[in-house]
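Reply to dn_fold:

You asked what the input looked like. This is it:
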Amino acid sequence: MEKVEGAFPIMETNGDTKMRNISPSSLPYFHGLTSKDTDIFLIEFVVICRTYDYTNDEKMLKIFPSTLKDATLHWFMGLPRDSITTWDQM
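and this is what came back:
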């Protein structure tokens, strides 16, 4: 897989989505460690998103990269440009 420097894997939309601020300390973080249960991480992520009224795919996709750390963030940023979209963008 070719890494494109500066490319972002999530396809940008027209930017009309209004976002509420989520405190970074509220977000769960995923480092990719085998001791961390991915299902629990995703449940925590969805709970926080729902708490801040991030209930549609576009809002959740915008905040998701902020939860990735270390090797998982490196992997994510290596994905091809615009390779992640919402169902509405397909």
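The chain has one domain: 24-89.
Hope that clears it up.
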